[in-house]
Write a structure and sequence with these properties.
Radius of gyration: 21 Å
CATH topology: Rossmann fold
CATH superfamily: P-loop containing nucleotide triphosphate hydrolases
Order of helices and strands: EEEHEEHEHHHEHEHEEHHEE
Amino acid sequence: MPLQTDESQTPLLDVQGLKKHFPVKGALGGIKGHVKAVNNVSFQLYEGETFGLVGESGCGKSTTGRMILRLIEPTDGSAFYKNQDIFRLTGKDLHNMRKELQMVFQDPYSSLNPRKRIGSILEEPLAIHSMGNKKERTEIVMDILHKVGMRVDHYYRYPHELSGGQRQRIGLARALVVNPKILIADEPVSALDVSIQSQIINLLRELQNEMKLTYLFIAHDISVVRHISDRIGVMYLGGLVEEAPTDSLFENPLHPYTKALLAAVPLPNPRVKRERIVLKGELPSPLSPPSGCVFHTRCPFVMDICKTEVPVKKEVLKRHIVACHLH
């Protein structure tokens, strides 16, 4: 059941005006422009919920997640965790914050050290954060292996001896072993078979209930996001264009881009017909995004105002926010 978020409470994570512009060098060495990978993204994450971030490849989803963890430094913006701006933390404060915010990466193989056994990989975060002695760390690792559905003998194996689904479980175990509050899952199932995807999604939901976790779930497949998210934010070319509770988004999508994403999801019943929205052209370059609404070059409902004015976010329905001149 989706979490009924009380948005009168203080958000656990509050992201405001997040930007990341990568400089592009010219042939003679000077900077000829900036790639606006993330451009003015704001959202809130409430304790115990799952917020899904969805959009096409290259829209800035992963960059957003990595900036929150300071794996990439932001160009501008703020991200408050427990009333502390993550981007202003240094030294011990930053070290302690990273214990409470962890990440599961997309590729379960390249994110694991191939020269280390699974036990050593999982004990390393505990050693970094000075949690327990050697015996206690081993006990904690054995417990987390059990929680993610792995056997005791996997403690002694190397990553190459595991399947893709097993490696992703180890990546999940490594993030959870320090008992974080927020887990940022960056495309955690996109590299897995469909049957394994469902197993990992179910595991994530079980662990969320058991360990009182809060998720930022990043994916390009909106049908996958639907099964785990309480709220969904739709990204396009570096910005959030729509944000709503999951049921509201699927029952009544407001932004044309969201409608196009949902129209592309296959229906299980071949006799059921629905409106097909085909987007024109290619995704514009973030090096020189279109003026006005960045979606206007592909939008089937484009108006003159879309080409000149940036749409302002509006709460059209309860907790259903959209940035579109149609509303």
